[in-house]
Amino acid sequence: MPAALLPKEEVLARLLATFREDGYDGASLSELSQRTGLGKSSLYHYFPGGKQEMATAVLAHLDVVLGEAFATALAAKTPEAKLARLLDAVDAFYSGGRSACVLERLVASVDRQAFAKPLARAFGAFASAFAEIGRAAGLKERVAAARAEAAVVRIEGALVVAAGTGDFGVFARTLADIKRSFLAEA
Amino acid sequence: MPAALLPKEEVLARLLATFREDGYDGASLSELSQRTGLGKSSLYHYFPGGKQEMATAVLAHLDVVLGEAFATALAAKTPEAKLARLLDAVDAFYSGGRSACVLERLVASVDRQAFAKPLARAFGAFASAFAEIGRAAGLKERVAAARAEAAVVRIEGALVVAAGTGDFGVFARTLADIKRSFLAEA
DNA sequence: GTCTATAATAGGATAGAC
DNA sequence: GTCTATCCTATTATAGAC
User: Fold this and answer.
1) Does residue B79 fall inside a structural domain?
2) From CA A110, how far away is CA A26, in angstroms rounded?
3) φ and ψ of B133, to 5 deg
4) Is B153 buried (19+), middle (13-18) or exposed (0-12) by CB count in 10 A?
5) Is the dihedral of CA B157, B9, A111, A4 positive or negative?
6) Tens-level pLDDT at each residue, chain A (186 residues)
7) What Å distances lie between residue A4 and A19, A45, B59, CA to CA?
8) Subunit contact B110:A170, Cβ cutoff 8 A
C-alpha cells in the first residue's frame, strides 16, 4: 500500500500547468499522467470524473491559492502599495505574459458549460481584488467596479495578444498602464 | 463529376464558425465535415494538409474579409466616424461579445506554433486599423500605436471575460469606452 | 494508492469507386 | 469533387493484481 507519490496540492499544480500549456481540449490523459507522474488509474482514483473533474479541482484549488495571494497583496498599507503588490503577483503568476490563463483555456474548451459557475466565480474574485483597492482609495463603488472589470479585461486580453504576436512587451505595457491609471482621479 | 456543393468562401465561413465555437483542438474532423456538409474526403481534397491547413486557410480568408471590412470603416470621412464604423463592425463580427475570436482559439491550440506567423499578422492588421484612425485624428505615431494595441487587447479580453462570466455587457461597455477614449486629447 | 494491461471509442487520414 | 468504407493511431476509461 504505497503512499501517495505527490501531495494533492502538487498534483493540482501540475494539472494546472498542463492545462495552461496545452489547453483543456489539448491536454490528453497520457500527458496529464506524465506531467503528474501518476498513472492513469491513479488519476482516476483521485478524480473519478476524469478530465472534467481534474479541471474543476484545479479551479477550486485556484480559488484558495489566489484568494491567499490576493489577501497578501491587499494587506499592504496604502492603496498604491496594494495595487503594486497585486500587479506584481499578476506579473509573476503569468510569467510576464508568457504563461496563459487557465480560465481562458477552460472558457475556450468544449466542456466550458461544465465549468461555467466556477469560472464566473473566479473572474469575479479576480475583479473583486481590484475593486477593493479602488474602494480603499476612496473611489465610488461604481467607478471601482468599472475599473476593476476593465483591469481584468485588459490582463486577459494582453495574455491573448502577447501569445498571438509573440510580443510579450504588450503584457508589461498593459500592467504598467493599469498601475498608472487605476487610481487616477475620475 | 458533381460540381462543388458550396463555394469555397462558404466552406471557409463554416470552418471559421466551427473553430470559433469548438476551438481548434475541440473541433473534430467529423464535426467539420458535418458543419460544411462535405464528407471527410472532400475536406481533404480541398485541404490536403488536414485540420492545420483548414485553419491556415481560414486565417488567409479572414485576412481578406477583415481587410475589406476595415477598408470600408476607414472610408468614413471624419476620424470619429471611422472609429464608430470600425467598432460597429467589431460588435457585429463578435455578435455583441457572444461569438469568440478565432485568433484566440488558435492561439490556445496545441498547434499554435504552426499558426504563429498568420496569427501575428492578423493581430497586427487589427491594430493597424485602429492606429490609422489615430493618425487620421492627428495623434502622434507613438500614441496612435499604443492606443491601437490597447484597443485590441481590450476587445480580446472582453471576449474572454464575457464568455467566462456569461455577462456580455462587459463587451458592450468595453467598446463604448474605447469609443469614448480612443481619440481623446493626450 | 499504484501499477500493467486492455477494452471501447473517437480521432485523423486514406483508398478507390463513381 | 464527392462518396462510402476502412485503416491506424490515440484517446478515454476500466479491470484487476499488488
Assistant:
1) yes
2) 11
3) -65, -40
4) buried
5) negative
6) 345 678 999 999 999 999 999 999 999 999 999 999 999 999 999 999 999 999 999 999 999 999 999 999 999 999 999 999 999 999 999 999 999 999 999 999 999 999 999 999 999 999 999 999 999 999 999 999 999 999 999 999 999 999 999 999 999 999 999 999 999 987
7) 22, 11, 46
8) no
What is the total count of domains within chain B? Answer: 1
Distance CA B103, CA A72 (A): 35
Instruction: For residue B178, give the H/E element and its range.
Output: helix B169-181
- Which grid coordinates are listed for B56? 491556415
Residues A160, B160: C-beta atoms closer than 8 Å: yes
Residue B111 maps to a domain = yes
Other CB atoms within 10 Å distance of the CB of residue A63: 13
Residue A85's domain comprises 8-181
DSSP letter for each residue of B33-57: HHHHT--HHHHHHH-TTHHHHHHHH
Record: contact A174-B153, CB cut-off 8 A: yes
Q: Across the interface, which of A105, A119, A158 has its CB nearest the CB of B153?
A: A158
In a domain, A151, yes or no: yes
Q: Which residue has the cell 465535415?
A: B33
Q: Is residue A3 part of a domain?
A: no
CA atoms within 13 A on the CB side of B81: 7
Structural contact between residues A164 and B104, judged by C-beta atoms closer than 8 angstroms: yes
Contact indicator for A176, A163 with CB cutoff of 8 Å: no
Q: How far apart are CA A105 and CA A78, in angstroms?
A: 34
Stated length of chain B: 186
Q: Kindly report the CATH number assigned to the domain that includes residue B49.
A: 1.10.357.10
The set of cell numbers assigned to B54 is 483548414
Residue A177 has φ and ψ, to the nearest 5°, of -70, -35
- Closest chain B residue to the Cα of A156, Cα to Cα: B157
Half-sphere exposure of A120 toward its Cβ, with a 13 Å CA cutoff?
11
Under 8 Å CB-to-CB from B94, ≥6 apart: which residues? B100, B101, B155, B159, B171
